């Protein structure tokens, strides 16, 4: 066990890295631990994904993000965050999962899959991409059901059902169709949802011309090895099927927050308790940063509007330590 750190940051996504940059700037000792790879959530985005935001809105620590196009893609973002980590020599331990957080006198003991650390403060910036929202229907555990979509080539000449109404579902439907898949969308709502402005007309036109079949106000009710049942307003429809891409969204790891003692609301929103001025939770010295702050409302906080969390947190910690945050 090493000396007591000022801050241990859980999560090496963009906001976790931003917290590390602010801690370094303030002269505070810190370590970032991440259970997966660097910016693990972004790594799991679809291969050809393009961000809605411009490059400058994805910057952290004031470090310029140069992009070929106005809207950077996944590969450019991964390159940017690697470059930031290396150029700033951020202290990051990857593939190291936090297993326990225990209070001890005026600090915390943080146990991981590889080591144990002591820290006066903890920042939780774990994002939400690790746990998919399940359909909870028969057959969902079949190997052909995927809650993550990556490369469209895999689905060439396959009968694919895409579930969802927003960006992830739109990208999966269009990309797999363009690579030769027979695509059917199942949309719970009566119309398509919030989709990038350059994607939505494309998808609407493909549906209108019949290239992509879409069932609105409908739900998948059962999945079998070679077919699926869709409950539509007109009744049950059974269609042949090879793969199901369930683009139903994801949720934060509430069990981890509960395990360490962070209060959550009892409603279905599961909002964690924190002070919006300092980002400190009900646990003294434990802070939240990024999308985790929104509970189940995972579309409230993004990289561009939660970068300020890093500044708020480090400013508060620095003031408590009597350090001037530059």
UniProtKB/TrEMBL annotation:
InterPro entries noted in UniProt: Bdr, FAD/NAD-bd_sf, Ferredoxin-NADP_redctase_2
The UniProt record lists the keyword NAD: no
Keywords: Flavoprotein, Oxidoreductase
Top-level taxon of origin: Bacteria
PANTHER family with a match to the protein in the record: THIOREDOXIN REDUCTASE 1-RELATED-RELATED (PTHR48105)
Record NCBIfam families: Bthiol_YpdA
Name this protein carries in UniProt: YpdA family putative bacillithiol disulfide reductase
